[in-house]
Amino acid sequence: MTPEQENSLISSVAELRDVFVDLDDRVREMDGRVQNLDSRVQNLDSRVQNLDSRVQNLDDRVRDLDDRVRDLGARVAGVDARVERLDAKVEQLDHNQQIILSQLQRVSSDLEGLKQETALTNTRVEAYQKASNQVVNLAFTLVGSATVALVILAVRTATGN
Predict the structure, then answer these.
(1) Which helix (H) or strand (E) covers residue 78, if one does?
(2) pLDDT for 118-133, tens place per residue?
């Protein structure tokens, strides 16, 4: 080998060594970046697991809420049915109230008529009682007069006059 070739070879080896040093530096840099990325991936994996757990918890809560909403829907339907029945009963009670009010008005009217008839009857009874008392008084007066007349007659007969 010639000295020129030897120098060229040394120069090439030096260049290769510089290239290898640069590559080694770049590999170390890439290793650092890979480690950094690996750390970030692990951090992201941890966060994803945390989020998965939270999502699972939220899914459970949503299912629980869905069940509760279904239960409430059934209860609301039951309440609606009860309200409809109560509305029907209220309508029936309103109808019955109207009938009772109508009957009450008739009874009130009848009662007013009875009051008037009672007042008239009381007036007649008072008149009959007065007339009856007068008849009784007249009867007693006649009985008294007849008794006096009989006594006078008996006394005259007994005395001879």
Answers:
(1) helix 3-159
(2) 999 999 999 999 999 9
